[in-house]
Amino acid sequence: MVTLVRRFRPQICIFIQVSHSNAKNGTVKLERSNGMLQIVVFDNGIGFNVDSQNVDAGIGLSQIRARVEVLKCFINITSSKKGTSISISAPIFY
Known about the structure:
Elements: H1 2-8, H2 10-21, E1 26-33, E2 36-43, H3 59-70, E3 74-80, E4 83-91
């Protein structure tokens, strides 16, 4: 669990939110459920088009995707005019 949080570094998502989203509020949640650890970062900003080819043009999201790939995790990004949510899930091994 500590490895996931350290490697993912939720502050990257927070930096992206502050820099680009015009959000007034942002939240980071860490949850454990059904053998999975999930980090969710969401905001109430202006959102963006997740399917756009320009999404990975910057360093922020490409860093997040690279870290997720290295850790063999799952990522889900949703965005609308009401905000953005980045959810990363990883299996917990005992």
